[in-house]
Amino acid sequence: MSRLRTLMLAAILAALFAGLVPATAHALTAVQAQDELSRTREQLSLMRQRIAAASERKAGLDAQIQSIDTHLGQIEGDLAQTEAQIAQVERRLAASRDKLDRLREDLRANRAELRAAEDRLGLQEIAFEQRVVMAYKASDLSYLDVLLSSSSFDDLLRRLRVVQDVVGGEHDLIGELEEARAAVAAQRDELTVKQDAAVKAAADLEQQRSELAALRAAQREQRDAAYAARQDKGATLAAASSNLAELERQEDQLLDQSQALTSIINGNSGGGHGTGAMMWPVNGTVTSGFGYRMHPILHKRLLHTGIDIAASSGTAIWAADGGKVIYATWVSGYGNTVAIDHGGGISTLYAHQSSVAVGYGQSVKKGQVIGYVGSTGYATGPHLHFEVRVNGTPVDPMGYLP
Question: So what CATH class is 1-18+26-268?
């Protein structure tokens, strides 16, 4: 952050608090700036805790996204392998189906051929049976005709041989037809076996493809879920990164504000002239000491930056030492407040007054009335809240009082 921006911020802070000081004031008082600095430092501490938590969350999201990316890589690899297996099975299935189609076509042709052979055999068998029946029915007449019509014994033998050749030839033809039919039937049986095997192979490939398709669907579902998770984590990471950047920006602003307030405190201190010995600002009993305590109104553990001295409302409040008034008006929480710079980095603060009796920039002497006890600001009843600060930092006033 540039020095120019720091100086500008100091000027802005002075302008913001201008309404809290008297008309004679021209700048943010050291005590007021110190109060604001304390709050700023507390905010800075909380901001740094939030930054640490945001950084840890961002790192956790980065690790989760890296894990998801690794898982996605594994899924994509498995899915690619499954796709390759499906492509291979589909190629084998297509070849198996082509083979099955060819076998079925061959089987259809074989069956047609077998039917034709059976038809030829059937016709020949019918003709043969008819001839045999006719031969048997007219066997005596046929042979008698042959005998009677023969001109010689040699002619008789020749006629008988012709008859036998005719009948025997028909019988041989039937045998050949039966052999052909048997061969065609055997081929049909072989084709049927091959077809059954091809059908089973195709069915097995279909089952394998179905199982691989189911595996692919599951892998795609896992991949989609992983992509969705990564997208969700990515959006969360982007928000976390943006939040972290905003927190770091606010941290820079708080650091700038802290530096500006420190500059204001250093610029407003050193104008008083005290004796070096303090007196009690009011007679009364200390009801709450310096240090951390449970705040009676805010109900949380906070640093009590001074001591509370019980006193009746309207009781005069004395300057604990001589010096210059650097604050004399209302401030949130403190109510009507007076702060005095005693020089040497020492200042005192008197809060919760019912009214103040001095003004900003006024020089006061030790023991001079500067205001009156009240219960303005965060107070449960009339008392004086008294602080001692060294270079703007609250210290225990008991170390400075007699």
Answer: mainly alpha
